[in-house]
């Protein structure tokens, strides 16, 4: 926790959980990405934290933006980015939304099938498209499903279809899985990308760009490699599979850009047991849960570091749950969380690494609980 966040929370008088993001940390993260991958353009994944403060800061630093909707495109433009710095990176788009994006000047679109290519060709003629391919995501703490992307063997057909419809077949994209702790995870995906480049070249189509996606992690309970290690590994893989004919590259960091910049302060609402059995694990309920911004605890995939005012006391296994009346609002039960036995109702706890994917997952008003408050300092 930075001193700026510590001072803010010390002076806060409002009730309820809140997220506090230190913008200086976001700035440092951006500069680290640009230094570690100096020939790669950064397209910040807006969905990770779309606050105007974060977007304006990054736009001023020169960042581009990966967007998933017309609303996110409008956010990027409002923050000061020009349309040529925006990618419509969702492979599932309404044709009228493509047309709206085209009208706002966006000229870069993701596709992963023939039907999506045809929508872009009709609504955004002459624009650039890149084809997303499937990636196994081994090593990621939050692996991605098969919802986005096509088999690498299909990509050349998709890009050739785009070429024949008057679009610019620009390149290939992939995502190695969110919170990817393996710095070598990009190697196999780049091998697939290079093969697609060669096949397209044989068909008379010259591709230019590889979108390396996101996956860059933030620190939770376990240490993660520094961004410099990812940069070195990715560059080595690029040289290995593309030789001296290196393509243009872009990255789409989200979690790695803002995750470690934020901390949630929450309150213990209840500490209880379900029976008098001596081995009964106690339950600790907070005033924030899955519907208040901690959706990534689903399947206990992301385990956040939690600090309490009683750290140093004896730790005991605890089920950690949220305050709503939905039985799914339990964060950690399959693997109970170790918390101080002295933790009491009313204690404030700090949930670290919560700058990404918290406010954006916060429900509007489930059970009447308000959305997660956020402060960017």
Give a verbal description of the structure.
The protein is an alpha/beta fold and 377 residues long. It is 29% helix and 24% strand. It has 2 domains: 89-253, Alanine racemase (TIM Barrel); 260-376, Beta Barrel (Lyase, Ornithine Decarboxylase, Chain A, domain 1), CATH 2.40.37. Strands 1, 12, 13, 14, 15, 16, 17 and 18 form an 8-stranded mixed sheet that branches. Helix 4 links the parallel strand 3 and strand 4. The two termini are 13 Å apart. Keywords: Lyase, Pyridoxal phosphate.
Structural class: alpha/beta
Largest sheet: 8 strands, mixed
- How many DSSP E strands? 18
Total helices: the number is: 10
Question: What is the succession of H and E elements?
Answer: HEHEHEHEHEHEEHEEHEHEHEEEEEEE
- Quick one: overall form? elongated
CATH class of the largest domain: Alpha Beta
Q: Give the C-alpha Rg.
A: 22 Å
Strand content: 15-25%
Our count of domains comes out at 2
Specify the helix fraction band: 25-40%
Average pLDDT for all residues: 95
CATH topology of the largest domain: TIM Barrel
Question: Based on the structure given, which CATH architecture of the largest domain is correct?
Answer: Alpha-Beta Barrel
Give the low-confidence spans: none
Under CATH, the homologous superfamily of the largest domain reads: Alanine racemase
Separation, N- and C-terminal Cα atoms = 13 Å
Family: Belongs to the Orn/Lys/Arg decarboxylase class-II family.
Catalytic activity: L-ornithine + H(+) = putrescine + CO2
Pathway: Amine and polyamine biosynthesis; putrescine biosynthesis via L-ornithine pathway; putrescine from L-ornithine: step 1/1
InterPro entries: Ala_racemase/Decarboxylase_C, De-COase2_N, De-COase2_pyr-phos_BS, Orn/DAP/Arg_de-COase, Orn_de-COase, PLP-binding_barrel
């Amino acid at each position: 926790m930075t001193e700026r966040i510590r001072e803010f929370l010390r002076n806060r008088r409002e009730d309820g959980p809140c997220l506090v993001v230190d913008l200086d940390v976001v700035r440092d993260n951006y500069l680290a990405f640009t230094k570690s991958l100096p020939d790669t353009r950064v397209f910040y994944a807006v969905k990770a934290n779309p606050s105007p403060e974060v977007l304006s800061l990054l736009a001023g630093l020169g960042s581009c933006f990966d967007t998933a909707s017309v609303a996110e495109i409008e956010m990027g433009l409002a923050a000061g980015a020009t349309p040529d710095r925006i990618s419509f990176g969702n492979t599932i788009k309404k044709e009228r939304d493509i047309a709206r994006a085209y009208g706002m000047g966006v000229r870069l679109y993701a596709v992963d099938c023939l039907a999506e290519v045809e929508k872009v060709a009709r609504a955004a003629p002459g624009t650039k498209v890149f084809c997303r391919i499937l990636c196994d995501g081994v090593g990621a703490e939050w692996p991605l499903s098969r919802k986005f992307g096509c088999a690498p063997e299909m990509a050349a057909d998709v890009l050739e279809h785009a070429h024949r419809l008057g679009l610019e077949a620009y390149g290939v994209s992939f995502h190695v899985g969110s919170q990817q702790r393996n710095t070598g995870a990009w190697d196999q995906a780049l091998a697939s990308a290079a093969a697609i480049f060669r096949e397209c070249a044989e068909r008379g189509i010259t591709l230019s760009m590889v979108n390396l996606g996101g996956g860059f992690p933030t620190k939770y309970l376990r240490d993660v490699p520094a961004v410099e290690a990812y940069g070195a590994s990715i560059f080595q893989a690029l040289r290995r599979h593309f030789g001296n004919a290196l393509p243009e590259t872009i990255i789409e960091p989200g979690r790695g850009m803002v995750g470690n910049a934020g901390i949630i302060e929450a309150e213990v609402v209840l500490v209880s047991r379900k029976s008098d059995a001596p081995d009964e694990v106690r339950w600790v309920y907070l005033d924030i849960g899955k519907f208040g911004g901690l959706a990534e605890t689903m399947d206990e995939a992301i385990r956040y570091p939690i600090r309490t005012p009683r750290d140093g006391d004896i730790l005991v296994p605890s089920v950690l749950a949220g305050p709503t009346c939905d039985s799914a609002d339990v964060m950690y039960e399959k693997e109970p969380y170790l918390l101080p036995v002295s933790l009491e109702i009313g204690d404030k706890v700090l949930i670290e690494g919560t700058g990404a994917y918290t406010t954006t997952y916060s429900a509007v008003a489930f059970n009447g609980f308000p959305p997660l408050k956020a402060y960017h300092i």
